[in-house]
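Input.
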Amino acid sequence: MKTAFLFPGQGAQHVGMGKDVASAFPAAAEIFGRANAVLGFDLASLCFEGPAEQLNSTTISQPAIFTTSAAILQVLRTSPRTAGLRPDVTAGLSLGEYTALYAAGVLRFEEALELVHKRGLAMQAAADQADGAMVSIIGLDTEKIDLLCREASRAGLLEAVNFNCPGQIVLSGERQACRLAESIAPQHGAIKAVPLEVAGAFHTEMMAPAAESLRQALAEAYINEPTEIRIIANINAEYYSTSAEIEQGLAKQLTSPILWQKCMERLLGDGVENFYEIGPGRVLKGLMKRINRKVKVTNISTAEALNELI
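Output.
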């Protein structure tokens, strides 16, 4: 019976995340301390106390989500009852792919955190240079999404970039095009259209400057070759086989669609039965319910959830 560890991406953050875990488990508190030392500011305080405006910023939310997920993972790794719980495969939604690589032993904690921090800074800088936005469309299949995109594209660049689960696809592009898509989505049969609170048009060519900056950071990082634990890539739902592929995939991810539904369907097709969502929030568990209702995902986001396992 195969096991997968899943890690959330940007948007999962909330004030107070990780506070109960760090209070209850010294292993988690140590991870937050290491993060503070790497970054040179009090990330733990921002996670535990906020303010929300700061925590929600791209530059802070990305290292915050990574660190909180890593802290929960550290408790699982160091508690006697769960130390033997090892994944056959790891997966992370967008930003979460860095946590998946860390969990699989491909990146060290400090290196992964530095990359995540640089990623957030680069994405914010690229967003500041262009007027981009994102909007989540609920209730349309890919064919209808294509039609909606084509029509709304008359107002500017617009692409479908997050294929999260059946009936939930995120569009990204120039702000005017996103607004037009939001207004005409009901005419195409959408249940609703929800503008996302993000800094810019993530996963489009508008993030090309960020991808270039990240490419340079990745070239300087030490990425181990994947070994026993497999990691599935967001951009193509294929398993990474070399460190060079990982380096290319992480850079390409910034300007490419995220195929989360395909990734989960691939894992299910390859015999994964046990899924653990490790990190803040419950987004991935919710998406899996829409992908395959029969699959059980154990959410581990709080000290209470950890205590039930250990």
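The first strand starts at residue 2 and ends at 7.
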